[in-house]
Input
Amino acid sequence: MAHHFTADNKVKSTTNNMALTLRIHEIYQSIQGESTLAGTPCTFIRLAGCPLRCRDCDTPQALATDSGKTYTIEAILKTIAPLTHQSILVTGGEPLAQKNSIALLEALGSITQHLQLETSGAYAIDHIPPHVQIILDIKTPESGESQKNRWHNLEILKATDEIKCVIYNRADYQWCKAIIGQYKLDQRHTVLLSPAWNALDPKDLVTWILEDELKVRLQIQQHKYIWDEGTTGV
Ligand code: SF4
Output
């Protein structure tokens, strides 16, 4: 049967979406610590739950699907109303593990010029609305979760999307360099290479990047320098 989508349908669908719920670990404003927006004001919407178990996960408090509390999309919009709209980051946990994350991204689209989604890359991204800038985390072998990478995601990213890779050691770096070359990621995207906290000296990563003349950007997780390690809600 053919379906005709009218303006009325759209209004109705948007209104219905306001009642959809998500499990949210926390909502707060701070300084964006990562991506090319690093250092700029940002409102963080951290969704609860992640099926991955990366080595040294930096948000272990958000891994449980029942952490935080349940919000409707309408309640999320009310909560962020007084916070900065300069940029909004939907993160986790793994945001795409909750099916209503797509409706949330649609609802946030008219609120900010810079709507970012940070995802592990373990879920399909083909249904992410085009106004969302995706920050796609490639999981390295040393993270323990490289088998979860969905390689097709790398082929369908938009030019404005960014790739992030946390590097633990020389072998991780070589692996990441091979992936960048194979998918020509540095020709199409900003690629952010981050030294794993307390595991790889940033100086070593800088040396390797310069030796290989990689077209990537070193990413230092700024929030870990500003606040004590393990501080949450910042
Ligand atoms: S994907 Fe992110 S939230 Fe999930 S275990 Fe890995 S680092 Fe933690």
Residues 133 and 192 are 14 Å apart (CA to CA). Residues 1-7 have pLDDT under 50 and may be disordered. Residues 7-226 form a domain with the TIM Barrel fold (CATH 3.20.20.70).
